[in-house]
Amino acid sequence: MSSALEEKVCTLVVLTQHGFQADNGCMIELTRLNGHKIAVNCDLIRYAESSPDTVLTLITGEKLIVRETSREVLALTGEYRAGLLRAAWPDAAQALAARAAYDAFQTPQEQE
């Protein structure tokens, strides 16, 4: 892993007066019901349930209740993971576009 990627992925979360703030996208920032911000490592989320509040169950068994909807948590997690992939493979867009063009011109028999 390159040092730039390690720095981006491993930068510490900065504490603020109002709770946690993820300063570089290492974690997703969510809001507790009391309005305080919390930075959550999205790799630790096992389930996100809406009942009617959003309850996150972590792989440790701990449960967090947040203001964001399950869809918002999913979107933030997707953005976080996409950022990691962009940092690890900056030329991915070109490679994926080339693959899509290649797949589009194959006949159905060639695709099998």
Q: How large a portion of the residues is in β-strands, by DSSP E? A: 25-35%
Mean pLDDT across every amino acid position: 77
Largest sheet: 3 strands, antiparallel
Instruction: Specify Rg, calculated over alpha carbons.
Output: 18 Å
Question: pLDDT under 50 segments (min length 5)?
Answer: 1-24
The total count of strands amounts to 7
What would your notes on this structure say?
This protein starts with a helix and ends with a helix. The protein has four helices and seven strands. Strand 6 and strand 7 form a beta hairpin. The N terminus is likely disordered. The protein has one domain. The strands form three sheets. Strands 5-6-7 form a three-stranded antiparallel sheet, with helices on one face. Strands 1-2 form a two-stranded antiparallel ribbon. The protein is elongated and about 55 Å long. With 112 residues, it is of the alpha+beta class.
Q: How would you describe this structure in keywords?
A:
alpha+beta; 26% strand; two-stranded antiparallel sheet; 112 residues; disordered N terminus; three-stranded antiparallel sheet; 4 helices
Task: Describe the secondary-structure layout.
Blueprint: H1 3-10, E1 14-16, E2 19-21, E3 28-31, E4 37-40, E5 45-50, E6 54-58, E7 63-66, H2 70-88, H3 92-105, H4 108-111
Antiparallel strand pairs: 1-2, 3-4, 5-6, 6-7
